[in-house]
Amino acid sequence: MALVVLLRGVNVGGHRAFRPSALARELRHLDVVNIGAAGTFVVHQPMAQARLRAEFARRLPFETDIVICAGRDVLALMSMEMPAAGRNVVRFVSVMSRLPRAMPRLPITLPPDGPWLLSVHARHGRFVVGRYRRHMRVIGYLGRLDRLVGAPVTTRNWSTMTAIARVLREGVAPGAV
Predict the structure, then answer these.
(1) Residue of 91, 132, 159, 163 with fewest CB within 10 Å of its CB?
(2) Structural domain of residue 59, as residue ranges?
(3) How far is CA 68 from CA 4, 19, 52, 78, 105, in A?
(4) Global model pTM greater than 0.70
(5) Residue 156: which of 27, 4, 3 has the closest Cα?
(6) Do 119 and 86 fall into the same domain?
């Protein structure tokens, strides 16, 4: 089964900037598909996660957390029911780099009083699923997820996860015909 690679904190605000499409070309021998600009890849070539992590780390111009999960786990996640999103609400998935010793009781809503800006609904293995409102303060709440769930996370929106699932099922890059 394919593996999904998610790089943490890259191409955000000009920090740790690189071209994911160029990295995917360098790794074409592993049948790598780049998805977007946030450091998200599907790797179709079967291999050990440690070797895959080393392949990515060797080619990146900086150090970053490299989170790897099985494609089958992403497909199982995408079969979950997810609360609807509105015009100003974004669904997201945060992938924990490891399983935490303990998870807080869900749901979590931030801020704790007043109108919610971020809401974490469920956990599915290493995936934490929720929604946030489009608001300037949300980035701070997303940055607190590591401490809240007890493990480093990297976050993608639901549409990115949908694109990953499509590549996993169909074996093609998003937008390819």
Answers:
(1) 159
(2) 3-74+162-170
(3) 6, 19, 9, 17, 25
(4) yes
(5) 4
(6) yes
**pLDDT tens by residue, the chain, 177 residues:** 899 999 998 876 667 778 899 999 999 999 999 999 889 999 999 999 999 999 999 999 888 999 999 999 999 999 887 777 778 999 999 999 999 888 889 999 999 998 999 999 999 999 999 999 999 999 899 999 999 999 999 999 999 999 999 999 987 665 543
Q: How many domains does the chain have?
A: 2
Q: How far apart are CA 101 and CA 14, in angstroms?
A: 33
Contacts 24+ apart (CB under 8 A), 168-172: 168/2, 168/4, 168/42, 168/71, 168/74, 168/75, 169/75, 171/44, 172/33
